[in-house]
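Record type: monomer structure entry
Structure origin: computed from sequence
Chain ID: A
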Amino acid sequence: MCGIITVIKAPGVLKLLGEHAVVYGYLSVAIGIDRHAKAAKFKARDDALHIGFPTVNMHGKLSYGELSEIYKQYKSRKDIASYINDSEIDRDLLPFATIAARLACEFGIEVTRQSVTLYSDIPMQKGMASSAALSTAFTLSLVSGRKWIGDDNIIDVARDGERIIHRNDNAGRIDVSTSYYGGYTMFGSKVGAKNIKSKTRINLLVIDTGPKKSTAQTVGHVAQLYKNDMKTTSKILKSINECSLNGVKAIKEGNIGELGRLMYLDHNLLRDLGVSSKGLDSAVSICKDSGALGAKLSGGGGGGIAIAILKKSGIKTAMSRLKKKGFRPFQVKIDYSGAKKYLRR
């Protein structure tokens, strides 16, 4: 490697409202936070693209010919699972190799003669969109400065990483969009991804309640509920959507009390879907008893993290009570800039 060219930072993501309902076309609301994935790009000494992620001991080297072959296989895939299973590329490398292949072959970006090393301070597999942030940072490291590609194309290419990681063609819609835009972002099948123009500030607490089920498991559980009892499940999903719609209004108006009330309501609805856990319910209850304005699970559920918004005066008390019960709480702030800012370069 010669000299560093640029470093891209993409924020992690927390879900404020709308989990699981978003799978059925309804609205979801998320925020970018001040935990980041980073992609450091250097000039390489050869004609290849070098990709490294030391955290998982992943290192790869790809020629333009190899990227071209990856692109052909990806575009002609029968489905995402068959593409992954048929690929000879290392599974940890494949998401990033596919992103690079699309940028090179579909958009004509010169991705070779470069080396990209990935880092992250976002807890992995905790429901904070660490993989989406990595995909976003990596994509922008190769795209940076090329505004002509457009937001929608950049988000879609970054989502290729999520499609592969989660083995689902619909993956990454809210997570990548929020990591890209930062701040408050909403997503729904009818409106697409939109940044919510608001600087509403909240004191945000993240509570790690321990191991979680995979998102695929909890999404599958809701799908089975929907199949077995469409009427009841649809009613719950529509109520979650109402929380999201009213939550957007509260965010725009700066009404934190209403946003908190909707978070509690949303958590109860998600619990009715069976995607909460004893740990999540306990954390939410402790936060409520400690005077939190709102609290809920965040992400796929089945364990993992809960979030809460509090008055500044109540943070210390809530953290103390949560720690006594064995939870690991920590504060985060909203990242209002997102990764998109690097397109200005």
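Annotation 1: The chain has two domains: 4-196, 203-332.
Annotation 2: The chain is about 45% helix and 25% strand.
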